[in-house]
User: Fold this.
Amino acid sequence: MTPLEYTPLGDSLTVHRNDPHARGSRLSEIILGGQDGLVNVLGVILGVAAATDDPRIILAAGMAATFAESVSMGAVAYTSIRAENDLYRSELEREYRHIRIAPEMEEKEVREIYARKGFQGKTLDKIVNVITANPDVWVEVMMAEEHQLNPPEKQGSAVKSALVVGFSAIVGSLIPLFPFIILPVHTSMVVSIVIAALTLFIVGAYKARITVGHPGRSGLEMAVIGTLSAMVGYAVGLLFKVPVVP
Assistant:
């Protein structure tokens, strides 16, 4: 069995797929895609609306930004996970090579790791002996404790993450864009900002409730930062405002 074929502690990975941390990771992807799509597209449509009152141009710019943002965010999610996986596999091969070539040095590193955790004497000796008795466990410990690297996601998981982030970006992008479909441009600008700020506040508060932090403070922070970021687009649009032809 080669290092790349070995999946450390397969049973524990099965548990990991069902534990709250896995769901939390998926939630962070949804928030990442949705927030990024909402803020970026809000900035684009406010900038275009500041430059022109033509709703068709605003909608065209907003839809173009929506789908470009979705594809971009999905691609970034996919490539970042693949890069992390490649790094893990590279370090995994290196650790297998090290315990084969220099086992004494690697054993000393294991001992130092658990000594820093407070283990001493016979307890420390037993821990080191148990870990170093199995090369696969030994390497897994070194990957987690020395390199702080988690087992890689499968390629299918990278694709799933890309789809989740990309779809979330589309949903987030359509939130500030919707008022421009049914309302006059100037009214839509105000409504879009209000809806976007409320959405960001709710997302920030919910995130704090299921993780850490104060919901109100977290929601307000996300709403303010997101809205101010989008207003930069509005300010730029004012510089290119198209004069109204009488």
